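Hypothesis: this fold can be encoded by more than one sequence.
Test: take the structure tokens below, design a sequence, compare later.
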């Protein structure tokens, strides 16, 4: 029987199909020649010509070849699927065929994901590959999108169960067969259409997971404002669906990944910015705005992020979702781990058995607490990420206001001990192929995402005081009163009804766990960054003293000196935090001197500083600025610190400053400047600005010239510095650049920064403060093009 579909129609169409079949058989001679049909199908798939679908073959031919090639009957099933999926079909038989195809692919996909690939090794070509080659993927896309086609003025409908089967098969094929996901990503109308399938609870999880995978490989970011009725769609999600939808949002609101942000050169970033300005808002920015326009969206995210485990979804609906996950490979490994946890807990009580991968009825009646916790952790991961991205976007102030209003911070404070920083149990969730200390474990990822959120929330924003409770805010006021300095205006303006409650605020809780963190912990970097962000901005004596009273300085010095920390990232975060904590603070320098009380300890500290100036230069800058301020103060307490503190004495020496200055300029070049190392350029400028204040700028430039000559490379350093300063002007004098960060970090007006750079770049070789005056004519190389090679 020739199973040509009704849609195959015209005589011309039949003729083309017959010709293709003859070509595949190598003529009508009866037995097929050993022609590689799969190769021809693959070629057709790439070119869109020739053999591309099962419908181009007769059933007799496919059955005969299947005996030799062991295709599991997939081409024949696809032939039947074509015949039963035409516009006039009721799709009943179509769904039955899908149910025959589905297990042939799902077992293979499960084996593929779990790396148990024995099934895929038994045949030369996996079932998913055969399914795709014979046109299965394109056919399922057509079937799914049939409801978008009008027939006699009426929209066609297919059942949720059938949609679910199509989605499951598509996902399994994407998992196992290279290139399928990318091909689907190129079908923009299909990707947009998939969002409409999320209106049904039955197909939601399958649709969301497929969309997430497709968007992960899509070259161009999708625009959410193109999704039909987006606001209505999202507003109708229950909290469980919204949490899962955040997995998709994570891809749609983050700027396209072009590499590590800190490692990207500023030249490339500036070029991209200029290009973006001419193109208007990016897709990610448009998507963020689209989400923020949905009524109640941020409020619902805050509720999800802060709800307690006891408030989460009931047992019945949770188990229903787990059953969905079990058939959905992206989460199958998670489910396996959850089941392992459940079984371990159940064995301590009445034992457990498994039915279809889920606990038996005895376990269903009492869901293990650890499963509830892990379920909630995995939800919160996605939600916190979305909130964090929104906090760093263009609408930052709007998001800040809403997050404060909906009490995200006090809510997270209440969850800190029991969920966010809970103690690991023996049966904590560990994903397949990972261990308990792996950064991929949900427990650890939640902690890191939480710390990133705190960092974004606190950074240069007055809402940072919501991290404290009422008692701690009163303590800040008392510190200011005792020091006879004005209270910080942001503290006075803080809405006390929105701050943390309980005995400790979130910042204090973070300090407590930070001091207990093991030396090798991956959290140290993120903890230090989160606390440092609280101190960033205009230096606040009260903020510094609040943290000093809690032993933060001693903890940092212990980690740098006594534990001799080796991680460059952790060291950089600790040096940055130490600089913010000590800047202009006499009490901090006294505490430093008390802890670093021997020459041996001081030498270890200096060794850590000098081992990488890229990591430690912010501390060098803060100490240099503090020294300059202390030297201009008439105060017995300050005079005592100046005479006793090893660190201040060390920095005050001109040879020390020149050594730092020489190395800071030498380790950076315009082509290698990044967000991470541009601080070296600004620290070198701080040293020279302070020298200019003391009318010693010519001296410092003359000493740099001598150091060049001593290295036998006259001009190499000053030429480089000249190019760096030219770039500085282009970078920081651009109208969209915020200069307040430079002012706040140095307490030097931005106008003085600009003047100093202009003086250094003065082309007059007679000027004693111009760089060109110290570069001999034969070695002059100051007009180099900045364009990256």
């Amino acid at each position: 029987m020739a199973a040509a579909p009704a849609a195959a129609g015209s005589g011309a169409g039949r003729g083309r199909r017959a010709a293709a079949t003859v070509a595949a058989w190598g003529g009508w001679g009866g037995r097929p020649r050993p022609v590689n049909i799969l190769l021809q199908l693959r070629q057709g798939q790439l070119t869109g010509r020739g053999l591309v679908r099962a419908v181009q073959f007769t059933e007799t031919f496919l059955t005969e070849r299947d005996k030799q090639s062991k295709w599991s009957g997939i081409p024949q099933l696809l032939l039947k699927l074509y015949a039963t999926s035409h516009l006039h079909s009721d799709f009943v038989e179509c769904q039955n065929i899908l149910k025959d195809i589905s297990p042939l692919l799902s077992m293979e996909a499960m084996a593929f994901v779990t790396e148990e690939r024995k099934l895929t090794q038994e045949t030369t070509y996996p079932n998913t590959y055969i399914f795709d080659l014979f046109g299965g993927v394109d056919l399922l896309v057509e079937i799914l999108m049939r409801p978008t086609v009008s027939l006699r003025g009426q929209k066609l409908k297919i059942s949720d169960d059938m949609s679910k089967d199509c989605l499951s098969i598509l996902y399994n094929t994407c998992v196992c067969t290279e290139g399928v996901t990318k091909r689907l990503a190129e079908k923009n109308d299909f990707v947009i259409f998939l969002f409409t399938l999320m209106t049904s609870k039955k197909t939601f999880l399958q649709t969301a997971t497929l969309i997430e995978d497709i968007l992960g490989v899509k070259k161009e970011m999708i625009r959410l404002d193109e999704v039909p009725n987006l606001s209505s769609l999202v507003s109708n999600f229950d909290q469980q669906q919204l949490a899962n939808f955040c997995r998709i949002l994570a891809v749609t609101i983050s700027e396209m990944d072009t590499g590590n942000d800190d490692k990207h050169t500023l030249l490339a970033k500036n070029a991209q910015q200029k290009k973006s300005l001419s193109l208007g808002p990016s897709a990610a920015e448009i998507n963020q705005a689209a989400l923020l326009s949905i009524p109640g969206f941020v409020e619902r995210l805050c509720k999800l992020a802060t709800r307690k485990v006891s408030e989460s979804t009931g047992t019945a609906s949770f188990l229903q979702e787990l059953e969905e996950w079990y058939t959905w490979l992206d989460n199958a490994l998670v489910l396996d781990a959850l089941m392992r946890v459940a079984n371990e807990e159940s064995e301590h009580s009445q034992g457990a058995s498994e039915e279809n991968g889920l606990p038996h009825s005895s376990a269903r009646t009492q869901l293990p607490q650890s499963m509830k916790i892990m379920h909630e952790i995995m939800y919160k991961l996605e939600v916190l990420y979305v909130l964090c991205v929104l906090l760093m976007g263009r609408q930052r102030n709007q998001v800040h206001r809403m997050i404060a209003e909906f009490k995200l911070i006090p809510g997270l404070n209440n969850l800190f001990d029991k969920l966010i920083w809970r103690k690991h149990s023996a049966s904590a969730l560990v994903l397949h192929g990972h261990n308990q200390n792996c950064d991929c474990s949900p427990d650890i990822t939640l902690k890191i995402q939480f710390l990133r959120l705190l960092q974004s929330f606190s950074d240069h924003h007055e809402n940072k005081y919501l991290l404290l409770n009422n008692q701690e805010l009163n303590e800040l006021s008392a510190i200011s009163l005792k020091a006879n300095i004005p209270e910080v205006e942001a503290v006075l303006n803080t809405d006390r009804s929105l701050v943390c409650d309980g005995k400790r605020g979130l910042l204090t809780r973070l300090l407590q766990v930070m001091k207990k963190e093991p030396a090798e912990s991956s959290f140290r970097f993120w903890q230090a960054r989160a606390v440092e962000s609280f101190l960033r901005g205009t230096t606040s004596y009260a903020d510094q003293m609040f943290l000093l009273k809690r032993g933060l300085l001693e903890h940092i010095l212990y980690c740098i000196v006594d534990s001799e920390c080796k991680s460059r990232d952790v060291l950089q975060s600790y040096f940055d935090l130490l600089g913010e904590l000590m800047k202009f603070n006499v009490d901090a320098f006294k505490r430093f001197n008390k802890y670093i009380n021997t020459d041996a300890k001081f030498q270890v500290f200096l060794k850590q500083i000098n081992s990488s100036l890229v990591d430690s230069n912010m501390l060098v800058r803060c100490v240099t600025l503090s020294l300059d301020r202390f030297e201009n103060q008439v105060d017995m307490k300050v005079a005592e610190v100046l005479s006793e503190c090893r660190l201040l004495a060390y920095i005050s020496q001109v040879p020390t400053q020149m050594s730092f200055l020489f190395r800071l300029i030498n380790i950076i070049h315009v082509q290698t400047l990044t967000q991470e190392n541009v601080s070296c350029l600004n620290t070198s400028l701080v040293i020279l600005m302070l020298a200019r204040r003391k009318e010693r700028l010519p001296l410092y430039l003359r000493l740099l010239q001598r150091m060049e000559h001593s290295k036998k490379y006259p001009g190499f350093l000053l030429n480089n510095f000249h190019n760096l300063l030219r770039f500085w002007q282009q970078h920081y004098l651009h109208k969209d650049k915020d200069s307040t960060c430079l002012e706040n970090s140095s307490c030097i007006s931005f106008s003085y920064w600009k003047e100093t750079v202009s003086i250094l770049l003065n082309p007059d070789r007679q000027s004693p403060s111009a760089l060109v005056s110290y570069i001999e004519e034969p070695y002059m190389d100051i007009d180099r093009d900045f364009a990256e090679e």
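Residues 36-220 form a domain with the Leucine-rich Repeat Variant fold (CATH 1.25.10). The beta strands are 150-151, 154-155, 354-355, 358-359.
Hypothesis status: open.
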